[in-house]
């Protein structure tokens, strides 16, 4: 039956490579022991932005060795969803957003500054390493082909509708339900989500002028992080991707 997603294969990150062999040490090795990998098992190994199907050849307390069988395509699932998330005043909520939008399939996340968002740029920049770690751990867990990209902080006024379908999630003035937006054969979706206090009227107007369609989610008002995860998940599941059998 089309549409069934195979379970994600177990993943690790190589410490170094020699020819067609990868060696895994340190924290990753501890994870391998914790997950009870067995010699002969097929696994995925991430190395310098590339992913390889490998077989585990040996394992000891000093390290594990995996032999490359083939390189795996790292083409992300379409459509590419670019999420522009106004940073919640409760900044810790961004951890949840990073992890969950990675799982549901967003391609890129841009932390956005708006009139009611978290404002401290320096504090935000210090969070990047943490967010990249969360995104990476989610990548290992969920089977996506590359980690969620986390783009530099951007001001709402500087956003541009760069083609594809551009939408702003607007719980008040949204003119159309998300379910009514035509996502057929769409390759890119740009999605703006407000902070806890929502957007100002001026901001929604500005985004509208830039080409972002104000859309609503049924049936209630959601927390910012719920809206982000739900919207990305709906777009990924209700757009029309290539048939699973053709990939
Ligand atoms: N009282 C706030 C307001 O002025 O809109 C509610 C903000 S809501 C907690 C945070 C953000 O989540 C909103 O700015 C919007 O982007 C998104 N959101 C929440 N529920 C939504 C819905 N039902 N439809 C569209 N967007 C929604």
From TrEMBL:
Gene3D superfamilies xrefs: 3.40.1280.10, Hypothetical PUA domain-like, domain 1
InterPro entries: Alpha/beta_knot_MTases (IPR029028), PUA-like_sf (IPR015947), RsmE (IPR006700), RsmE_MTase_dom (IPR046886), RsmE_PUA-like (IPR046887), tRNA_m1G_MTases_N (IPR029026)
Catalyses which reaction(s): uridine(1498) in 16S rRNA + S-adenosyl-L-methionine = N(3)-methyluridine(1498) in 16S rRNA + S-adenosyl-L-homocysteine + H(+)
A molecular-function term among this protein's GO annotations: rRNA (uridine-N3-)-methyltransferase activity
Record key words, sorted: Cytoplasm, Methyltransferase, rRNA processing, S-adenosyl-L-methionine, Transferase
Residues in Ribosomal RNA small subunit methyltransferase E PUA-like domain copies: 24-69
Keyword Ubl conjugation assigned: no
Cellular component terms per the entry's GO annotation: cytoplasm
Ribosomal RNA small subunit methyltransferase E methyltransferase domain residues: 80-235
Superkingdom assignment: Bacteria
Pfam families noted in UniProt: Methyltrans_RNA, PUA_4
Location relative to the cell: Cytoplasm
Enzyme class: transferase
Main location: cytoplasm
Biological process, per Gene Ontology: rRNA base methylation
EC numbers, comma separated: 2.1.1.193
Family assignment from sequence similarity: Belongs to the RNA methyltransferase RsmE family.
Biological role stated in the UniProt entry: Specifically methylates the N3 position of the uracil ring of uridine 1498 (m3U1498) in 16S rRNA. Acts on the fully assembled 30S ribosomal subunit.
Name of the featured protein: Ribosomal RNA small subunit methyltransferase E
Source organism per UniProt: Thermocrinis albus (strain DSM 14484 / JCM 11386 / HI 11/12)
């Amino acid at each position: 039956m089309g549409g069934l997603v195979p379970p994600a294969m177990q993943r690790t990150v190589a410490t170094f490579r020699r020819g067609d062999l990868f060696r895994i040490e340190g924290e990753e090795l501890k994870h391998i022991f914790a997950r009870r990998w067995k010699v002969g098992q097929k696994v995925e190994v991430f190395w310098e932005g590339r992913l390889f199907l490998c077989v585990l050849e040996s394992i000891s307390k000093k390290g594990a060795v995996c032999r490359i069988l083939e390189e795996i395509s790292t083409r992300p699932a379409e459509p590419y969803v670019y999420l522009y998330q106004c940073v919640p005043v409760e900044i810790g909520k961004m951890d949840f957003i990073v992890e969950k939008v990675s799982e549901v399939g967003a391609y890129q996340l841009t932390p956005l500054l708006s009139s009611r968002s978290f404002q401290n740029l320096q504090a935000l920049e210090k969070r990047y390493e943490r967010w990249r770690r969360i995104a990476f751990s989610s990548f290992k867990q969920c089977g996506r082909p590359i980690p969620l990209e986390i783009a530099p902080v951007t001001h709402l006024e500087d956003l541009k509708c760069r083609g594809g379908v551009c939408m702003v999630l607007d719980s008040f003035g949204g003119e159309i339900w998300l379910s009514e937006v035509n996502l057929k054969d769409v390759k890119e979706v740009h999605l703006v989500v407000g902070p806890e206090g929502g957007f100002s009227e001026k901001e929604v107007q500005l985004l509208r002028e830039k080409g972002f369609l104000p859309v609503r989610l049924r049936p209630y008002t959601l927390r910012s992080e719920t809206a982000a995860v739900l919207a990305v998940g709906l777009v990924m599941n209700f757009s029309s991707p290539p048939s699973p059998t053709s990939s």
